[in-house]
Design a protein that fits this description.
alpha+beta; Phosphatase 2c, domain 1; seven-stranded antiparallel beta sheet; five-stranded antiparallel beta sheet; 7 helices; 12 strands; globular; disordered C terminus
């Protein structure tokens, strides 16, 4: 059974309240990690993200199964929880949220993940980016359609407009990783909200991971970059790191002339 280590950082940034939420639940049968970024006025954004985390962890802990169907079920449960709250309070704000989920079976060393919105899941193998989720956003759709390059994702003025979110009316568009992926010793997952990845690009993530001995140290190094980029409009930011066993050792080669 592979050992799993968890680290997380969640900060308010320059906002009045932290509308991000995160959490995890672990057992020998399976483990679940979830990150959510809420939106809405008068505190309904933080309520939405907390509802998402509670719904996901509550449902998974009752039946800790790691497969694609479970990810879909958890995403749908999060959506139902927020929609139920909105129906119970029709005079409230139009709250909604993003969500990113990772499930790992420590016995089979397999992982699945899924998301709605622009909170992301990254998988790094041998300290190199192996996978990242694609946002459900207007700008990502423009890039996919050939109307711009990947640099737009962090600079476009409409980069925060989502095409799918937990709590939105209409059909829920969600993404899942598919069949379980066998994880290896040294694999590292990063789950984060847009307030994090907007200021730490993928090359920087890789570069800082090269200099880290643990996922916790990696998060701290990235957090420095986020703080350095803070301005008066800086969003909340949240990141969770999941480390499978020990990170691959860093090898330094010294060339002697």
């Amino acid at each position: 059974m592979i050992e799993l280590q968890t680290s997380y950082i969640t900060e308010t940034g320059r906002r009045q309240r932290n509308e991000d939420a995160c959490g995890y639940w672990s057992s020998e049968q399976g483990s679940c990690w979830v990150v959510s970024d809420g939106a809405g006025g008068h505190g309904s954004g933080d309520k939405a993200s907390k509802l998402v985390v509670s719904a996901v962890l509550g449902k998974f802990s009752a039946a800790p199964v790691v497969n694609e169907d479970m990810v879909i079920s958890l995403l749908e449960a999060a959506h139902t929880a927020v929609m139920d709250e909105k129906r119970a309070n029709p005079q409230g704000d139009d709250m909604h949220a993003t969500v990113a989920i990772v499930l790992i079976d420590p016995q089979t060393q397999s992982a699945v993940w899924g998301h709605v919105g622009d909170s992301r899941v990254y998988l790094f193998r041998q300290r190199v980016l192996a996978h990242q989720t694609r946002d459900h956003s207007l700008v990502q759709g423009m890039i996919d359609a050939g109307y711009g390059d990947s640099e737009m994702i962090r600079t476009h003025p409409q980069r925060s407009l989502l095409t799918s979110a937990i709590g939105n009316s209409g059909e829920l568009a969600l993404s899942v990783s598919g069949s379980p992926v066998v994880i290896q010793e040294g694999d590292a997952f990063l789950m984060c909200t847009d307030g994090w990845w907007e200021y730490v690009d993928e090359k920087t993530m890789e570069g800082l991971l090269q200099n880290a001995e643990t996922a916790e140290e990696w998060l701290q190094l990235m957090a420095v970059k986020v703080k350095e980029s803070e301005n008066d409009k800086s969003d909340n930011y949240t990141a969770m790191g999941i480390q499978a066993g020990d990170l691959e050792p860093v090898t330094t080669v010294i060339l002697v002339k």
